[in-house]
Amino acid sequence: MADRECPLEAVPLPAEVRESLAELELELSEGDITQKGYEKKRAKLLARYIPLIQGVDPSLQAENRIPGPSQTMTTVPKQQKPRPTNSRDERFRSDVHTEAVQAALAKYKERKMPMPSKRRSVLVHSSVETYTPPADLHSAPPDVTTGLVEHSHCERPQLASVRGVPRGYSGSILETAGGVPVNSRVSSKIQQLLNTLKRPKRPPLKEFFVDDFEELLEVQQPDPNQPKPEGSQMVVLKGEPLALGTPWPPSLLAALQRWGTTQPKAPCLTALDTTGKAVYTLTYGKLWSRSLKLAYTLLNKLTSKNEPLLKPGDRVALVFPNSDPVMFMVAFYGCLLAELVPVPIEVPLTRKDAGSQQVGFLLGSCGVTLALTTDACQKGLPKAQTGEVATFKGWPPLAWLVVDGKHLTKPPKDWHPLAQDMGAETAYIEYKTSKEGSTVGVTVSHASLLAQCRALTQACGYSEAETLTNVLDFKRDAGLWHGVLTSVMNRMHVISIPYALMKVNPLSWIQKVCSYKARAALVKSRDMHWSLLAQRGQRDVSLSSLRMLIVADGANPWSISSCDAFLNVFQSRGLRPEVICPCASSPEALTVAIRRPPDLGGPPPRKAVLSMNGLSYGVIRVDTEEKLSVLTVQDVGQVMPGANVCVVKVEGTPYLCKTDEVGEICVNSSATGAGYYGLLGITKNIFETIPVTAGGVPVSDGPFTRTGLLGFVGPDNLVFVVGKLDGLMVVGVRRHNADDIVATALAVEPMKFVYRGRIAVFSVTVLHDDRIVLVAEQRPDASEEDSFQWMSRVLQAIDSIHQVGVYCLALVPANTLPKAPLGGIHISETKQRFLEGMLHPCNVLMCPHTCVTNLPKPRQKQPEVGPASMIVGNLVAGKRIAQASGRELAHLEDSDQARKFLFLPDVLQWRAHTTPDHPLFLLLNAKGTVTSTATCIQLHKKAERVAAALMEKARVSAGDHVALVYPPGVDLIAAFYGCLYCGCVPVTVRPPHPQNLATTLPTVKMIVEAIMRLLKSKEAAAAVDVRTWPTILDTDDIPKKKVASIFRPPSPDVLAYLDFSVSTTGILAGVKMSHAATSALCRSIKLQCELYPSRQIAICLDPYCGLGFALWCLCSVYSGHQSVLVPPLELESNVSLWLSAVSQYKARVTFCSYSVMEMCTKGLGAQTGVLRMKGVNLSCVRTCMVVAEERPRIALTQSFSKLFKDLGLPARAVSTTFGCRVNVAICLQGTAGPDPTTVYVDMRALRHDRVRLVERGSPHSLPLTESGKILPGVKVIIAHTETKGPLGDSHLGEIWVSSPHNATGYYTVYGEESLHADHFSARLSFGDTQTIWARTGYLGFLRRTELTDASGERHDALYVVGSLDETLELRGMRYHPIDIETSVIRAHRSIAECAVFTWTNLLVVVVELDGLEQDALDLVALVTNVVLEEHHLVVGVVVIVDPGVIPINSRGEKQRMHLRDGFLADQLDPIYVAYNM
Predict the structure, then answer these.
(1) Cα dist from 339 to 311, 422, 624, 786, 854, whole Å
(2) Closest CA to 112 of 146, 157, 138, 158
(3) Residue 1276, beta-bridge partner list
(4) In the chain, fewer beta carbons within 10 Å around the N or the C end?
């Protein structure tokens, strides 16, 4: 034990050193020092006290002292018995691998990863006891920053202190990196994750290839030290010739006829039931007579309209269960005798079996119309209502024929089948499922069939009347070749052991070998392993009769351990070592190689211990030092008689490999398959390969067949297989085999958490590279914590042994993965479900940060080009400077009306005087009835009353601020003008929402605190603590009084009103609007929309800020038109209210918000017919404008237009407006002028602040629509965000605006005006430096179009890209959240809404799940994939929440910053939070 003690023990640390260490810990935890700095300083402090061992990192010393179990273990010959386990394992790997994995894991400290947090209701699988409630919200996050043990204290205490939190830590607040105090488990986990990400896992890569344009994706350069093949070029390996002297029968059917007539009593096949009892023995006589009977029935008795149903060469499906080999054999030979082509397939159990659609595709392409089956099987198939067998998904219509004796007709005496030896004609078709899941049929000709039987007879030394026990599936592969075909050629007796019997009694095959004294047995390594687990206490079995135990999957990496362990146990029961004969086969080439016993001339068996690292580069290196990552393989014997074999490069031209290089094994022989049925192209590729030497010379004149097996030829000309092409995953430049990775995962305490045979490993392509995905079934009793622990250890083991990262590790509930027909997992179907988000995992761990190493290089900011050079550059390029303006406003002096209309109170008085009964406002309720109206005189009188009350009751004086807290309505308008009448400054405030006070009241309070007076109506008085508020005046019942004199502002620049709004970044900003700006705004809108007293417009907007307020309260008074007011809230109870109003009042112009448009699109989608019946007609609409402060939402406006086209809405009516805080109306389509244009820009160029126009539909294209026409009197220029220089046409920059209706400044109480002063008074740094502009804070560009304006000039279109404050700066590039969100919403149908934000340097994606909570975890991988693929960003955290959690403001914009605050304060109650490693 002395070895294990800590090297610090000898030297106790002095107190001051301990103090300094503690200080260091604190600095690190507070973020005052980096991890690197911390380690450096700490090492310095401890250097004097640690005796250094030469050249060894001190932190590793303790580990290096102990001889690891791995070293001692692997030197011993592999003779340990496997641990007994009580579960049936489908796969088995010797303990050496487990030891290697344990040793690899020991290298890592048990490092904790942040565990995902999951809502309790999602934990379907674990009981409530195993779930730990989040009680320890304030516990320190575990350390994920380092894999090394800290040796600053001698014995490791159970709870080692965690870096990042001081030792005496007991406070409840964690400071996050941004200095935000946080006290939630979510945040501490994120903190951990950040720490993990600080240390890049893989070395940075140097080289790049250009991916089309800007973004240079890294391409992995070969490592100069990687192993390279050094051997000489291999030569083609020739098998022994097929024996000529033997009297072979001329064909298989001739052999059947011979045995059936000369030896009718000889047993051919014995079938067993699930208890192991022999139920039936088929003799050769019976096989012959029943096959003849079937052939006669097929050819003569199945007719339709006197036409035979089948012609020679037609394909027929054979659908037989694995428990009925007898009927299968009769059907198979019956088809051959009738010259029909049997296509054996699995019995479909349900209408939607995994992969059954593909089988249907195969049957359809083979033109199968008839299926043969047994009576029992036919009864068990799913039926349609008619009692017929149901049509399976994707299957062609089939006639079903039951081939039991009573359904067949005996042929007349003189009838003989035609069947001659038909050579190249197809004998049968064997199905094969490819890696992608498509099912193809391999055709085998009569000649190949015969050659295969001869070669197997010679290689296995089969002799007449031998007994063979067969555990394999007799419908395909080795089970068919040995147990149905070759056996008949040699008049052998086959004992067929069904899979169902093996599941009940794994020893059954051994007992049958013993009781029938079988000479040969045909098994898979799984069967050997199962029998090992069950053999305890079986003393009486003997395997001494066996001369050959053929292991059909000898090519599997784990077969060697089964063989070794089996021999170990059964050698004492008569099993001779040389009897075990692994073989390798493939559907295309049939048997490729088989080991021969010494009496048949086989060399002694060999093993190779190969370096995993070498193999990943395709190079064979016998491993000597590194005992951890090795693959031990056994030979699969010699090449088949009469065959030539070579190994060629996997990709590209089939060059021969060098002798120490892994490649694909190819076979040239008369006994291989002929092709894929009906698929000429890939047939040529696979079945007609011509291998060439390095000089390009073909190695032989005959074509070779590719086997899909990866391997090499070893000493004694033995063939070694190291993997299959189907399981090959190429990550970067290295190749990994799925089976090897499964074996490693299984070696991590498999029995506790996952089912052994239920693990799938496959790769998915994300961002131009294969990414490894591992899916396993979790045991129901494994707790959340355990499973997570297991997952993190699997990641470490795979990383350590294979040096490759796993992209995604998912655990699914027991028994939910799709099964292959004979046990095992249907890999391609699992992959399909993963990619479609249909896997429904209960635990997911994604590691994109460690795996994805080929992201484009972060963009380095170039030194900025100065503004002057920018202008010169544009001039040289012939580009104009990007500026545009609306129509000129005539000077105010010219126009009498404009002078008169300078102050809105004056306008109202003038209208009340000249047209007193002209209606200005109609307010509708949810039923569509008018609840209140206001004529000019009514409005004037109401305003007077409010003014009087303000002056008397509230004692306000001119210039005081008054908050108006009203629901949308006429009272709000009256109160507004009342304030103006007495010289107060009104501020409209949205009343707090009664259901949602907690979130809405603070906003009201912030505004009110800023302005100190309050007017409100009864409805708004919901639940307010009056004592803390300023004077409150209720306007519902004020006495009728006139004001002595109406206040007249001394100059137009006096403040008229304040406009408060919460921006999407969550900042509450009030802007000041002067009387001059107010009237200029109304005038511009009047001119653009052609508003006169005779017009009616319909408004469905909130009246509290921006353009919505101006349209609701100001414009009607200014222009005299009638406004039909539809409060958006009323749409919640009657969605069609707004459109019905537009139709009823024949409004030419209407305004709405995106949220209103979305409600109509979602809520009325199916009801356009009903609305038409009710007489809703929208053909009156000239223009329908969406009021917005964001990039136009094209998808929404287009779907709205399409949907309501049926109600007469003109195709080009819908457009958008654009305004912002500094100017509430910059663009507005209006009634005349060219239609808005749409351009497509390259999304990747936008990230680099460039505009690159592309064609519609080109990759990475993003459609942008202009935001309406620029208003009269408005000038717009595009300025560089940093240099403030003007930019050229079609360049991306900040939109600056100059206009008489710009706001005059921010109204803030916190004295931050200085910060934002330049928002309202910016000047260009070059060019026109005199004009004063306001900065909008939005990125966009101007583009001169081919269209002409009303003025005859060419039209300049303004395109808004997005708010500058909202953009995410990631990897040196600028991303707009909406682009990432659009991709995410497309990723899966149950994502209802999505919002993204960054937290420190992590991208957080919040998605609303519109579906079952069990399906929440499907989204994690899909979201991560799509953001990687389309935006080259790694998602840090995926948060899955309920619908409606993402906050949205009245304009329908997402409040991402509120969401971020809620996330950090752990208030979202998420369904699941996944931390991507």
Answers:
(1) 8, 9, 57, 59, 56
(2) 146
(3) 884, 1297
(4) N
Helix (H) or strand (E) holding 836, with range, is helix 827-836
d(CA 153, CA 161): 10
Distance CA 1477, CA 1473 (A): 13
Q: For 1360-1377, how does the pLDDT look when each residue is reduced to its tens digit (9 = 90+)? A: 999 998 899 998 889 999
DSSP 1265-1297: E--SPBPTT-EEEEE-TTT--B-BTT--EEEEE
* Tokens found for residue 1347: 């269209």
Q: Which pLDDT score, from 0 to 100, does residue 583 have?
A: 95
SS3 357: helix
Cα separation, 271 vs 495, in Å, equals: 6
Phi, psi of 586 (to 5 degrees): -150, 150
pLDDT in tens, 211-242: 344 456 666 677 788 888 998 999 999 999 98
1019-1022, long-range: CB < 8 A, 24+ apart: 1019/967, 1019/991, 1020/965, 1020/966, 1020/967, 1020/991, 1020/992, 1022/991, 1022/992, 1022/994, 1022/997
Q: Which of 1008, 1004, 1034 is nearest to 1019 (CA)?
A: 1034
DSSP string, 260-321: HHH-TTSEEEEEE-TTS-EEEEEEHHHHHHHHHHHHHIIIII-EETTEES--TT-EEEEE--
CB 1407 within 8 A of CB 1468: no
CA 354 to CA 335: how far, in whole Å?
Answer: 28
Q: How confident is the model at residue 878 (pLDDT cuts 50, 70, 90)?
A: low
pLDDT of res. 264: 94
Confidence grade of residue 1314 (pLDDT, cut at 50, 70, 90)? low
Report pLDDT digits (tens) over 1428-1457.
999 999 999 999 999 999 988 777 788 898
Measured CA to CA, the distance from residue 471 to residue 865 in angstroms comes to: 76
Neighbours of 495 (CB within 10 A): 26
> Rounded distance, CA 893 to CA 133, Å?
74
DSSP conformation class of 1333:
B
- Reported in sequence order, the residue ranges of 514-621 that DSSP labels E, i.e. its strands, are 520-523, 548-551, 580-586, 590-594, 607-611
Mean pLDDT computed over every residue of the chain = 81
Torsion of CA 1016, 1019, 1022, 1024, to 10 degrees: 10
Give the whole-angstrom CA distance, residue 1371 versus residue 1398: 12
Element (H, E) at 851: helix 848-851
DSSP of 377-397: HHHHS-B-TTSSBPPPTTPPP
* Calpha distance 30→198 (Å, rounded): 16
Range scoring the smallest mean pLDDT among 275-279, 624-628, 868-872, 1462-1466:
624-628
H or E element, residue 810: strand 808-813
For the chain, what is the largest distance between any 2 Cα atoms, rounded to a whole number of angstroms? 132
Contact at 8 Å (CB) between 527 and 509? yes
The set of residues, in sequence order, having a beta carbon less than 8 Å from that of 396 and lying 6+ positions away, is 360, 363, 364, 368, 369
Q: Who has greater pLDDT, 448 or 212?
A: 448
CA distance 1317 to 1315: 6
Are 593 and 580 in contact by the 8 Å Cβ rule? The answer is no
Query: Does position 190 have pLDDT exceeding 70, yes or no?
Result: no
- The amino acid that residue 781 corresponds to is D
Neighbours of 148 (CB within 10 A): 16
Sign (positive or negative) of CA dihedral 1185, 1189, 1192, 1197:
negative
Given a cut of 90, whether residue 712 has pLDDT beyond it is yes
Q: For 1235, which DSSP code? A: P
Indicate the range of 61-65, 257-261, 457-461 predicted with least confidence.
61-65
Cα–Cα distances in angstroms (integers) from residue 636 to residues 582, 585, 672, 713, 1050, in the given order: 5, 10, 18, 10, 103
